[in-house]
Amino acid sequence: MSNLRTQEVEDLLEVLSSISDKDVLYALFEDLFTIREIKETSQRLSVARLLDEGKPYTAIAEATGASATTIARVSKALNYGSGGYRHALDVLEKK
């Protein structure tokens, strides 16, 4: 995935990491992403949370509306990925 980290991605990371106001961040999300993309991305975080709680795929699909494929992808990333989901879940746990 290192070839994905282009200057454009670095610029996006720089902008995102500089925003501390949730309303400003949401406004950027509305401009950058479609409503569907925002919903699907948010859904993946919910799936990760439920997987981390040990919920079965069927219960996660029922609770979130996520497909088995999405749940499997999130599970793979949560268990073998770069640690992004773990960090996100740790942030939410502290909330």
UniProtKB/TrEMBL annotation:
This is TrpR YerC/YecD. InterPro entries: Trp_repress, Trp_repressor/repl_initiator, TrpR-like_sf, YecD_YerC. GO terms for molecular function: DNA-binding transcription factor activity; sequence-specific DNA binding. It comes from the Bacteria.
